Amino acid sequence: MSAPAAAPHILLVDDDTDTREVLRLILESEGFIVTPAVDGLDALQQLLAIHQRDPRTPCAIVLDYMMPRFSGAQFRATQLANPGLSDVPVILVSAMSDIESRTASLRPFAVLQKPVNPDRLITTVRQAAELYLNRKPRAN
Question: Nearest Cα to 7, choosing from 36, 33, 34?
Fold first, then answer.
């Protein structure tokens, strides 16, 4: 009998406490393990720490685009520049109406409009996590 697969680990980044908590509760209710971060800098530190313990985690990042101190765009640019982290899929969330055109260069897995539809969030995160977990390892 094989051990059950671990629940997908998600890094959740949003500077708004209420939004972060609601998204965390939605994701955890679907069985995801969620690590919250308050901005892009906190997220980068969390991502490096998590990834060092287990290079297969997190398997998706839900990332607010507009944040003080270190924005979602700054986080994503830094992540893309790091070969060990660049393939973790990012789901950008924002209240901006033209967010998709502004973020194409950041190569997000998906872009969701705030307020985020819970069903769409769950479906999108599940798809991103499955894609990441089923990817082929890179050749060294």
Answer: 33
pLDDT tens sequence across 71-105: 999 999 999 999 989 999 999 999 988 877 778 88
Determine how β-strand 90-94 pairs with β-strand 60-64. Answer: parallel
> For residue 15, what pLDDT is reported?
97
Instruction: Say whether 91 sits in a helix, a strand or coil.
Output: strand
Domains along the chain with CATH numbers? 9-116 (3.40.50.2300)
SS3 88: coil
59, 91 Cβ separation under 8 angstroms: no
Please, are residues 100 and 107 in contact by the beta-carbon 8 Å criterion? no
**Is the bond into 137 cis (omega within 30 degrees of 0)?**
no
Neighbours of 101 (CB within 10 A): 9
The structure's pTM equals 0.92
